[in-house]
Write a structure and sequence with these properties.
Elements: H1 4-19, H2 25-36, H3 41-57, H4 65-74, H5 78-99, H6 109-129, H7 135-159, H8 180-188
Amino acid sequence: MDSPKCTVNKLTNNYLDTLDTNIDTKNHDENITHEINPTTDEEKEQLKKAYMEKGFYENSDRVPERLANMLKAFSADMNQAQKYYEIILIAKKRVEKEVGFVIWLEQEPELEYQLINAFSRAIRQIEQQQTVENGDGYIYKTIYNVLLNELSTRSRNATQPDPVYYDWLEEGKSNEVIPEWFKQQKQER
């Protein structure tokens, strides 16, 4: 047990410890309140803009993460990023109508990668060459062509189960069945 003298010293030390600490609680509370509740309209607008940008760029349900990062890098502000994303969606929707199936960019990392590269090349062409008159149209056409070429190739490959060219090197190595069209061509010669 502590003696009463020790207890008094402990209490005195605690009391003395707080005497030399100068805490301005009034200003501290005002700073916290100021951060939570901005006072000027300009501060409110900046905070609103920050939340809106965060909501746009970090909403992976709407904008795939890699596309959001790309848009953030190439856009001066959120409005420009939204405009670019809408151009991408319009091109994607038109290609979907032409090929007859839906494109899920989130589930197609290779297609998303091609799209990012195409967008980057289009922006570089617009900014560096300065020969493009309609930048939005150029971006649209670039994205449209990339998506259409890739999906047309996939569609063609899905409808042609037999290879177009016969692999002569693999003929004797396996027990593959020679396609009928090849046998017919061979007999005609």
